[in-house]
Amino acid sequence: MLIDYKNCVELIRACHGITPKKILHIGAHTGEEAGPYQANGAEQVIWFEANESLIPALQAHLQTVPLNQQIIPAALWDSDTKLKFKITNNPQSSSFFDLEDHAKFYPQITVSEEREIQAYRLESLLDATPRQVMFSDFEFINIDTQGAELAILKGMGKYLSQPSVKAIYLEINRQELYKEIPLVDEIDAFLQPHHFYRIKSKWTTEGWGDAIYLRSNES
Question: Which residues of 89-114 are buried (b: 16+ CB within 10 A; e: fewer)?
């Protein structure tokens, strides 16, 4: 996270007077954020990870952090469909989108494998009976999915607008690091009718960055 999670919690407290206890993290990688989550008041975390080869390392790391946690080895999207997942030699750069400017900024990172995987709307999973997800009243959402952020937000359906959600942390782009990915202005425009506003951004020199969106108190 380019914006320190402690700083995120401070912003949420200032706006909403709460410390997030329940976190939804999509694009887990190996769970590097678990320690900061626990150190700043989180109690429960659901981790989604689409790359099944990362699951053993994710499990091993999360066992070292005293949180109530669930790993869901699945991809999220705006529909229940099969997608081609491009796995790179640096797993953090794997994406459903083809490399574009990413290849210019990081020429050492290349696609090593393409794998067809099943993706789901989060709303579909949360509405399923019996429910396989341990909670749905998450307060903080973190999405780090190399261009899939907007599709995942759309796939949340009614759960994006539920009152419990106070903040959303996203990887954002102002250049097409991957072909035809949504850029930050499009994400801003989608979230504003849901009463989420980008209040802090931190950019890299490679055209991508991170942002935190807070729910308006007027919503």
Answer: eeeebbbbbbbebbeeeeeebebeee
